[in-house]
Structure formats: structure tokens, C-alpha cells
Amino acid sequence: MMYKPIPAVILLLSFAFIRLSHSTNIFSTTTDIAQIFTNPSHLSLPTSPAHQAVHHVSKLCKKEQKSIETLRLLEPCWKGEICYLNTQNNKCIKARVVDKLKDQLDHVGDLVITQTAIYKIPLIESLPSDYGFLYHAFVVFHTPDSPAAPWWSIEKTIRSLVIQRSFNKDEVLDFRDGEKRWESLKGLPRVVVEDKSRMLLSELLQFLHDSGEINHDYHGINANCQDFAKMIFNKLATGISAW
Questions:
Q1: What's the pLDDT score for residue 8?
Q2: Strand 115-122 to strand 175-176: parallel, antiparallel, or no bridges (unpaired)?
Q3: Longest dimension (CA), the chain
Q4: Average pLDDT per run of 10 along the chain, which is 243 residues long?
């Protein structure tokens, strides 16, 4: 049974509170806790998962130029586009309609996808290896008939859909857009489920078009990375290991 994801900020708060309940009582009032997220630099916290949660929420807000209040309202920076990234040059080809992306991939549209898997990484860096539902999910698939770049990943972020292609599996598994993915205490991505596939790449692109997923805003509860990964995997898989 897969638990339905809940808003990211609530997850981070819950994680921090659970960890803090087993350690020294750092905060005396709920006001102190709120001040951490609005001004985390004014308190000196020990190195702990709770501290890391606060630190990463702060980094996320600064990077996206979004306040905690905006994140709480689940209003991410959705751009309604697909970013196709070939890791050989790390150049992102952006498309607001799937047909434009299909034009870019016309020469590889008949490639057969033979295997696929869902991987997960923690939402907060350096979480323990078993991080429950606090994770980002993405799909990796293989097209062995394309020796130049047979490994692919596809995922939904708070900004866009991202498709990566590489000669090396590790480049789509361990990196996104040239940046290393967050690690758990036991390293990089863990397999959630895997299966064989017989779908053509062109059929996957057509499915993306027909589903209208590019126009579906990211939402922390019912349109998040896990929902997207499940939809793509179940479409690619032969049915033996549907998630």
C-alpha cells in the first residue's frame, strides 16, 4: 500500500518534530519554531536531521524565490513545459507541446523500451535509508537499440517535466540537469519497483501528449512526482510489477 503524499512543508515539519522529540528540547514555544523557518540563521542548532530539514527548506525557498507561505499553499513555479536534456552537452531543449519534442526525437522514435524502473531519493538530504514516503520518485528506462545513448529518465519537478538521455545509466540515475541528486545515508537512488517493457519511445511520447500531463500543474497531494512516476511506470511495464 502506498501512502498518499502530503504537502512538502508539512512533511518537513513532521520529520523535524519527530526527530526533536528524541533529543534535547531546543525550542520552548511554537513561536521559536516558526522563527526558524522565517529566519533560520538566528538560532544555533546542533547538527541533526532536524537542523538539516530546516536548512534545506531555507535553501529551497531562496532558490525558488518562494516564501514558506507560498510553499504551504502548494503554488510551485510550474512552467508547463518539458525539458529534454542530453547529458553529453547538458543543453535543455524546452517544449511547451509534446509534438515539438517529438520532432526533436523523430530519429529515435522507433526505439523499443525493454526495461523500466522507479527510483527514489529523499526529499531531505542525508535521511536514513528507510525514509518512508519522504521521497522524490522518477522513472529510468532502457532502449538498447540505441548504442549512442540508451539510458533515459523521466520525472516531474515543481517546475516542469524533465526527460534525460545518456550513454551512462549513472548520469540519469545520479544526476539531474547536471547536478547530483540528494543522497540518503546509504547513498544514491534506491529501486522501488522494476519491470520489463515492450513500448516504443514514440508511443510513450504520444501517451504524454494524450494525457495532457504537460498542462497539469505540480500539486503536493494529487499531482506530484510520485503520481507521475506511477503513471509512467504502469504505462511502460508489461504488467508483472505494476506499482
A1: 46
A2: unpaired
A3: 62
A4: 44 43 38 42 47 52 43 62 84 83 74 95 73 87 89 95 94 91 79 94 91 90 93 90 63
pTM, two decimal places: 0.68
pLDDT at residue number 51: 52
Report whether 189 contacts 120 (CB < 8 A): yes
Query: DSSP string of the chain?
Result: -PPPP--HHHHHHHHHHHHHTTS----SSHHHHHHHHH-GGGS---SSHHHHHHHHHHHHHHHHT--HHHHHTT-------EEEEETTTTEEEEESSHHHHHHHTGGGTTPBP-EEEEEEEESSTT--S--TT-EEEEEEEE-TT-TTS-EEEEEE-SS-EEEEEESSHHHHHSEETTEEPP-BTTBS-EEEEEEEB--BHHHHHHHHHHHTGGGS--BTTTBSHHHHHHHHHHHHB-STT--
- What does the pLDDT read at residue 12? 47
Among candidates 133, 136, 156, 129, which has minimal Cα distance to 228?
Answer: 156
127: cell is 535521511
Calculate ∠ Cα 124-129-135, nearest 5°: 40
Predicted local confidence at residue 47, as pLDDT? 52
